[in-house]
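ok trying this again, last paste got cut off
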Amino acid sequence: MDLYIKRFEKPEDDIGAGEDPSVIRPDLVETAKFPTIQKPPEIRPFSETGEIIIDENPELERMNELKRNKKNSEKRERLKSGWRKVSPLLALLLAALATFFVIKKGVSIVENKFLKPVDVNDPTPIVVEIPKNSGASAIAKILYEAGGEGEKGLIPNKAVFKVYVDFIGKSSGLKAGTYILSRNMSISQIVDIICSGNPPRTTVKFTISEGMTVEAIAKKLVEQGILKSEDRFLELCTDAKEFADKYWFVKNIVEEGREGRLYMLEGYLFPDTYQVYADATEEEVIVKMLDRFNEIYSRRYVERAEELDLTLDEVVILASMIEKEAKTFDFNKVSAVFHERLALDMPLYSDATLGYILKTNSMEFTQEELQNPTPYNTYLYNGLPAGPISNPGVAALEAALYPNEQYMQEGYLFFCLMDPTTGALIFAKTAEEHAANVEKYRPLWGN
């Protein structure tokens, strides 16, 4: 503790004689203290809330507590104020999300039950014509009845289609035109296509195999969705007059008019792969095939037919029989047998010609069937049948025009099936040899 010296001045009368007033006397000295100064409080590190912690200072602690309470109160007020502003918006957002998911779930259920394709595995193209000024109800009826009612149409339910286009606001956007649709399309896909307007014309391919008949071709075209029905196609092939002005060979057929001929165009619908518009008419499809025959049957064929003293139609009839009776490797041998029989004015005894009328591939017939008076019965009548029995390809036409010369020279007049697996034939010169071959190989035929 710091000390200081206080001088007390003594009255002069108290100063002893001879004393020096400047000399300090111990007895006159009074010890004194400075006022006590409080020791500074010890400072601790900052607290977690940012206040300085001071020991043994209740006042400061109280002030800090008030400060903390004020900050917390302000913070709570800010949170409450923010929530009051955000909560209505958040509630609206949550409600919107809930509504969205409910609607989405509902749409999904509706799509799965009512808007799904009629047949997801059927891509067959169907041509649909939407007339001008057609409303949603009229279009729904067209789609429902396209290709047949109910499950055979393009939509399963007319009312659902109408409700759907109204709901999505596309009822007024449906456009007139020609569309290529299929049963594996959903209602939403169909609506999108019809709303887009006329697309580029779709083309489709189809293949006619060698030996197919007019009726088989008609059936295939309907199955592939290229034609709506077989009737018009078969009608055109029966009469053929519509094509007589354009094709010289059709004109000859019509003018010759073989009695009992089933289809005028049988034999002339050339086997090939064709590409046509999906909405092609029966006339357009037939023209494609007649054009191809006209290209194939060259001037060389015409000249060769004249050498054999055969008309074009007779060549085609022979070729159609060869196509049905044998495999390609035996074509010219069968042709040789037929040429020899014609030269000898013998019945051709062709199973294929009688089978054409009876609509069977059987190689054996009953006595009643063998007596069928049809002009296609080459067991009953000599010469060629009334018309072609199939539509032959190039190989069969070539074989009809160029029979195997060796077999003709050696006089082969008979043949029968030898190997059902390969279709190979066995040939004979006499009726006795032929009967022996039939006896030997008949068990293999499986009839």
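PB: full thing came through this time. Residues 204-296 form one domain.
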